[in-house]
TrEMBL record:
PROSITE patterns: RT_POL (PS50878)
Keyword terms, alphabetized: Nucleotidyltransferase, RNA-directed DNA polymerase, Transferase
Ranges for domain Reverse transcriptase: 66-213
One Pfam family it belongs to: RVT_1
Gene Ontology molecular function: RNA-directed DNA polymerase activity
Listed InterPro entries: DNA/RNA_pol_sf (IPR043502), GrpII_Intron_Splice-Mob/Def (IPR051083), RT_dom (IPR000477)
PANTHER family: NUCLEAR INTRON MATURASE 1, MITOCHONDRIAL-RELATED (PTHR34047), PROTEIN YKFC (PTHR34047:SF8)
Name of the protein described by the UniProt record: Reverse transcriptase domain-containing protein
Length: 213
């Protein structure tokens, strides 16, 4: 997978308007096994409570079954488990979604593919949620601009409830500017529609509507 991703990165960099038509096949057995191994141990579990260690006890069989479902288009992520953690300097709590381990594997595989394409499109001054970049790197650049450049003002902006309100339809249309593989787009779309479990209810939320089952 790594060799193929390097080639995709070269193509993405050479042509910012190129659309990639065949990507889902990269989520093969070898790649997904590697994704499983790369995931951290002893993390919070999803609604079924399956740990990395438990999934790994029958890893080959589990991954083969996962690949089969991906190829047959029958794979569907399960709703994430909603939990809350305290917000810094606030009485409010921040919601978190904990996926099932198998869904984490697929997410990691998709992340590698998306990073390979979009890392070539992002501005160098962008740091949020990007690989090999962290808050300390951002602070170093900010410090450089403040000390070495002519800075008149600094704007601090926070989008309230961004992940609960982002428009999924718009997001999918944005992805289609670079990705025209219907199989990969279908998997991503199913993740967006997976929703979360809270107090025994499956809640599916988009900017347009909120559905409770």
């Amino acid at each position: 997978m790594e060799t193929k991703l390097l080639r995709i990165a070269e193509l993405a960099k050479s042509d910012p308007k190129m659309k990639f038509t065949s990507l889902a096949h990269l989520l093969n057995k070898e790649a997904l096994v590697q994704c499983h191994l790369e995931l951290p141990n002893k993390k919070a579990t999803g609604i079924s409570g399956t740990t990395k260690e438990q999934y790994g006890e029958s890893l080959e069989e589990n991954i083969e079954d996962l690949v089969s479902r991906l190829k047959s288009k029958s794979y569907r992520p399960v709703p994430v488990r909603r939990m809350y953690i305290p917000k810094l300097n606030s009485n409010k709590k921040r919601p978190l979604g904990i996926p099932e381990h198998e869904d984490k594997i697929v997410q990691r595989g998709i992340t590698k593919i998306l990073n390979t394409i979009y890392e070539n499109d992002f501005l160098d001054c962008s740091f949020g949620f990007r690989p090999n970049r962290n808050c300390h790197d951002a602070l170093k650049i900010l410090n450089f601009y403040i000390e070495k450049r002519s800075v008149n003002y600094v704007v601090d902006v926070d989008i309230r409830g961004f992940f609960d309100n982002v428009d999924h339809i718009w997001m999918m249309e944005f992805l289609k500017l670079r990705i025209s593989d219907p199989n990969l787009l279908r998997i991503i779309g199913r993740f967006l529609k997976g929703g979360y479990m809270e107090e025994g209810r499956n809640i599916i939320q988009t900017k347009a509507h909120r559905k409770v089952e």
